[in-house]
């Protein structure tokens, strides 16, 4: 045998998410991530299966669609639809969340580098939106800055993605979720949000205008809700 | 064929059970002169191997991923074709049309370069036997880089976005071939 491996999974690498267990593994010699959506005991068995399958399918379709328009997402190596398992490329590097925080030490450079990150991110989101794909869970934990290079951003976690009939409102909500996630996770990051929106508009002016108009309306609704609730 | 030219890789048909072992041996042949005859022998069953058009394979890992998917489908009684060798070729394709897939990725009448694969051949005896029937030269797998044809690959996988280059095309190809049952 020229190449052989011992075990596939590294049990110490278990990360338990809300919906899924993730392990580091080596698949046919390449560093990979195994993501398994586990069943939840409190859900009816049939419903549980259907939900896990729907999320797995959404994730697979989302990654396909993103890659088709040149937006980087992990390559899929293996799928088991019965056990709701996905093995995918391991993208090396910090999540955008960790990366943004790690920039804080770099006083002067920080601002410029983060703005560059924001523009790239906005551009990637605009590209998937233009193809009719909504990510559905845009947070800074669901993106990886590969090798710490903000120009090499990968989107992950497409389990809530949808690509049916998509309107400007859906795109606006996608951006609004991200805006709120950034405000909640990171302090003093208005410049990143601004850069994201600039990057977004620069890809396609028509889409940009329509979605910005929706975003303003959605923010307003959100603010009203905050005041009432 | 000099020994050591072909390579044997372990497969992982079950991600949770690495005791279920299978392997695949791969060898690259160039200057092949009898592709038409080889096709005949595949049809009659005289040859039991996957003979693939090497110019459509961008790198070995993707070939292994398809080979592993084929043994996984086999282990779960979910093969779409009648043999593991055909299932491997079918698994390389982004299409769910079986005959289209076999025609596109399987050895053609006028093929000059062939990627040959046999399952569970740890000792290399099956590959040695196969090599005797191929009129061509076995070369190290590293040579695949010189043979894969970006233009033909783009067409075979219908990948046209200009942002997809030689650097990132393998990611999209992998996703497309591995997940074809889940996307339409
Ligand atoms: N392909 C990958 N490469 C590197 N790291 C990854 C990859 N996929 C996931 N991760 C890491 O694992 C974490 C959780 O992954 P993911 O977001 O896909 O699952 P989750 O949030 O638990 O899933 P869900 O939102 O379905 O509950 C990510 O934030 C990231 O740190
Ligand atoms: Mg997540």
UniProtKB/TrEMBL annotation, chain A:
Keyword Cytoplasm belongs to the record:
no
EC number(s) from the headed UniProt entry? 2.7.11.1
Q: Name the chemical reaction catalysed here.
A: L-seryl-[protein] + ATP = O-phospho-L-seryl-[protein] + ADP + H(+); L-threonyl-[protein] + ATP = O-phospho-L-threonyl-[protein] + ADP + H(+)
Q: Which Gene3D superfamilies match?
A: Phosphorylase Kinase, domain 1, Transferase(Phosphotransferase) domain 1
Cellular compartments per GO CC: cytosol; EKC/KEOPS complex; nucleus
Q: What's an example of a GO molecular-function annotation for this chain?
A: ATP binding
InterPro entries assigned to the protein according to its UniProt record, in alphabetical order = Bud32, Kinase-like_dom_sf, Prot_kinase_dom, Tyr_kinase_AS
Which chain positions lie within coiled-coil regions? none
Task: Report the family membership.
Answer: Belongs to the protein kinase superfamily. BUD32 family.
Domain named Protein kinase: which ranges? 8-229
Pfam families membership: Pkinase
**The organism's place on the tree of life at top rank:** Eukaryota
Organism of origin is Mesorhabditis belari
PANTHER family under this entry? EKC_KEOPS COMPLEX SUBUNIT TP53RK (PTHR12209:SF0), NON-SPECIFIC SERINE/THREONINE PROTEIN KINASE (PTHR12209)
Name recorded for this polypeptide: non-specific serine/threonine protein kinase
Query: What processes in GO biological process is this protein linked to?
Result: tRNA processing; tRNA threonylcarbamoyladenosine metabolic process
- List UniProt keywords, sorted A-Z: ATP-binding, Kinase, Nucleotide-binding, Serine/threonine-protein kinase, Transferase, tRNA processing
Return the broad EC class: transferase
UniProtKB/TrEMBL annotation, chain B:
- Entry keyword set: Nucleus, tRNA processing
Any single Pfam family the record assigns to this protein:
CGI-121
Q: Does the keyword Chaperone apply?
A: no
Ranges in coiled-coil conformation: none
Q: What domain of life does the native source organism fall in?
A: Eukaryota
Q: Could you say which protein family the record assigns here?
A: Belongs to the CGI121/TPRKB family.
Q: Do you know which PANTHER family this protein is assigned to?
A: CGI-121 FAMILY MEMBER, EKC_KEOPS COMPLEX SUBUNIT TPRKB
What is the protein name given in its UniProt record? EKC/KEOPS complex subunit TPRKB
Q: Supply the source organism for this entry.
A: Mesorhabditis belari
Q: What is the lineage of its organism?
A: Eukaryota, Metazoa, Ecdysozoa, Nematoda, Chromadorea
């Amino acid at each position: 045998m020229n190449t052989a491996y011992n075990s596939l999974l590294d049990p110490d690498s278990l990360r338990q998410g809300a919906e899924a267990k993730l392990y580091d593994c080596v698949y046919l010699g390449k560093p990979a991530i195994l993501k398994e959506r586990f069943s939840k005991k409190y859900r009816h068995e049939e419903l549980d299966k259907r939900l896990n399958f729907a999320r797995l399918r959404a994730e697979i379709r989302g990654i396909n669609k993103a890659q088709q328009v040149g937006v980087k997402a992990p390559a899929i190596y293996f799928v088991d639809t019965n056990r709701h398992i996905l093995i995918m490329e391991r993208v090396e590097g910090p999540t955008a969340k960790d990366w943004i925080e790690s920039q804080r030490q770099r006083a002067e450079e920080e601002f410029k580098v983060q703005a560059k990150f924001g523009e790239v991110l906005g551009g990637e989101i605009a590209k998937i939106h233009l193809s009719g794909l909504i990510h559905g869970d845009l947070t800074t934990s669901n993106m990886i800055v590969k090798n710490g290079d903000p120009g090499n951003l990968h989107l992950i976690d497409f389990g809530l993605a949808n690509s049916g009939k998509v309107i400007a409102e859906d795109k606006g909500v996608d951006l609004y979720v991200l805006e709120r996630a950034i405000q909640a996770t990171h302090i003093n990051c208005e410049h990143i949000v601004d850069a994201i929106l600039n990057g977004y508009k620069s890809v396609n002016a028509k889409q940009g205008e329509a979605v910005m108009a929706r975003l303003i309306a959605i923010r307003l609704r959100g603010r009203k809700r905050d005041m009432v609730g | 064929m000099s020994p050591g030219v072909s390579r044997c890789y372990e497969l992982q048909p079950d991600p949770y059970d690495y005791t279920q072992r299978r392997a695949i041996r791969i060898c690259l042949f160039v200057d092949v002169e009898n592709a038409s005859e080889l096709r005949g022998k595949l049809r009659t069953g005289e040859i039991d191997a996957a003979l693939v058009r090497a110019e459509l394979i961008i790198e070995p890992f993707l070939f292994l991923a398809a080979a592993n998917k084929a043994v996984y489908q086999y282990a779960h009684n979910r093969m779409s074709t009648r043999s593991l060798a055909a299932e491997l070729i079918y698994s390389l394709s982004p299409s769910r049309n079986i005959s289209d897939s076999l025609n596109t990725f399987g050895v053609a009448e006028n093929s000059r370069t062939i990627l040959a694969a046999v399952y569970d051949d740890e000792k290399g005896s099956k590959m040695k036997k196969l090599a005797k029937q191929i009129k061509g030269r076995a070369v190290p797998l590293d040579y695949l880089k010189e043979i894969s044809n970006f233009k033909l690959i783009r067409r075979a996988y219908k990948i046209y976005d200009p942002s997809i280059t030689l650097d990132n095309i393998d990611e999209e190809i992998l996703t497309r071939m591995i997940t074809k049952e889940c996307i339409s």
